[in-house]
């Protein structure tokens, strides 16, 4: 019984890996530059919290030093610089998030175009008899509609997974 459970898990794992592989290959074929850009933005967003923690620590130390030294100009300017650095990281976070969302939208649009084009190519290769077949026509229409839904789900489920993976580290 235990062996059967392990075999089931291994089979499901193979299916998940196969699906991820196909999706990533499709993304890469659509636009390798967008995929590289998304990877760079995701890594940047994953590293940003660690930088923010370091800068926050520096801000606290600078302010404490400025208070302890009763407003010595060097310590006050260090505290102000640390505050500006914290603000710069907040702006960088907004820019990286906006860039990532833009590239995700661009990838989704291009992916949608590729899938629609593939469906049109398939429709163009059909004979008149096949095209007049109601069942086949309905399947092609359903594939076109569902491809848009699946692509939307991919955008919101697969792409953020990479960001969540890096954010947890």
Automatic annotation (TrEMBL):
Keywords assigned by UniProt, alphabetized: Membrane, Transmembrane, Transmembrane helix
Membrane-protein topology: Multi-pass membrane protein
Domain of life: Bacteria
Membrane-spanning intervals of the chain: 23-48, 75-96
Entry GO terms, CC: plasma membrane
Subcellular location as annotated: Cell membrane
Main subcellular location of this protein, as a coarse class: membrane
GO molecular function: ATP binding
Gene3D superfamilies assigned to the protein according to its UniProt record, in alphabetical order: ABC transporter type 1, transmembrane domain (1.20.1560.10)
Protein name (database record): ABC transmembrane type-1 domain-containing protein
Naturally occurring in which organism (per UniProt): Dictyobacter vulcani
Source organism phylogeny: Bacteria, Bacillati, Chloroflexota, Ktedonobacteria, Ktedonobacterales
């Amino acid at each position: 019984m235990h062996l059967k459970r392990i075999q089931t898990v291994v089979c499901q794992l193979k299916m998940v890996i196969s699906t991820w592989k196909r999706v990533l290959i499709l993304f890469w074929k659509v636009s390798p530059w967008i995929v590289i850009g998304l990877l760079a933005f995701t890594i940047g967003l994953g590293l940003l919290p660690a930088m923010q923690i370091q800068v926050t620590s520096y801000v606290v130390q600078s302010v404490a030093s400025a208070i302890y030294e009763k407003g010595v100009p060097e310590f006050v300017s260090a505290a102000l610089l640390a505050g500006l650095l914290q603000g710069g990281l907040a702006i960088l976070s907004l820019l990286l998030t906006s860039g990532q969302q833009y590239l995700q939208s661009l990838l989704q649009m291009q992916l949608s175009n590729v899938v629609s084009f593939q469906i049109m190519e398939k429709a163009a290769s059909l004979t008149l008899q096949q095209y007049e077949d109601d069942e086949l026509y309905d399947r092609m229409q359903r594939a076109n509609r569902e491809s848009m839904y699946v692509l939307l789900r991919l955008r919101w489920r697969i792409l953020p997974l990479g960001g969540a993976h890096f954010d947890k580290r």
